[in-house]
Amino acid sequence: MAKRQRIFVVQQNGSAEAKVAGIRQFGRDAFELQVFSIDERLPPVLDESEGFLPDTIDADLVLDFLTHPDLSYDLGLRCQELKIPVVASGKKHRIGGVVTPPICCGLSRQVGLGRYGEMFGAPEFSAEVENGLLVQLDVIRGAPCGATWRAAQKVVGLPAEQAVVRIGLETQFFCVADPSSWDPLWGKSPVHFAGKVHSKALERALQRKCLTVASGKCGAGRA
What we know:
Layout: E1 5-12, H1 17-26, E2 31-38, E3 61-65, H2 69-82, E4 86-87, E5 98-99, H3 114-119, E6 124-130, E7 133-141, H4 147-155, H5 160-174, H6 190-207, E8 221-222
Parallel strand pairs: 1-2, 1-3, 3-4, 4-5
Antiparallel strand pairs: 6-7, 6-8
Helix pairs in contact: 4-5, 5-6
């Protein structure tokens, strides 16, 4: 049996609970998770993170789900010193070894993130189409919250063109990101971003076998 990747999750007021549950459910025993929680009320500005962050971090990868920007920044610096890669979705700071996708399902494939980077991040699908209908949809890579897998179940049996639109809507329903947040760079809320990347991912999977989804002329076979 392959050695499990050791992941250290740092959360604030339950901010990582859905992701931790998704990694455990869809990670197929590939990970050893340790969760460090900060639940106390904090001031808007922290001059010193000592006493809030963990004293030691022994892991292959750190997932930063902190909501306080000062704590998140100091965590990144500490992991940089320890040479532990960090995934800090939605963060704006630039620290060596810290990857900052706009949201969890915006994480591209990158060297150094181990099994987590292979299994979680920007969605990838393998699809089977028969007579224009999506008859099977396998998730190769998906959001750590599990929205990708849950949304995929909802679109099997639909016409291919309809499934492309529907999976985006279903993803938004299952997405746990804050819908009130707005990213001026992308011009979308995280929830809308999640829906868009899932629709595009399914469209790409279908187009590997179909000349165009819109034509409705998808043949049988895997996409």
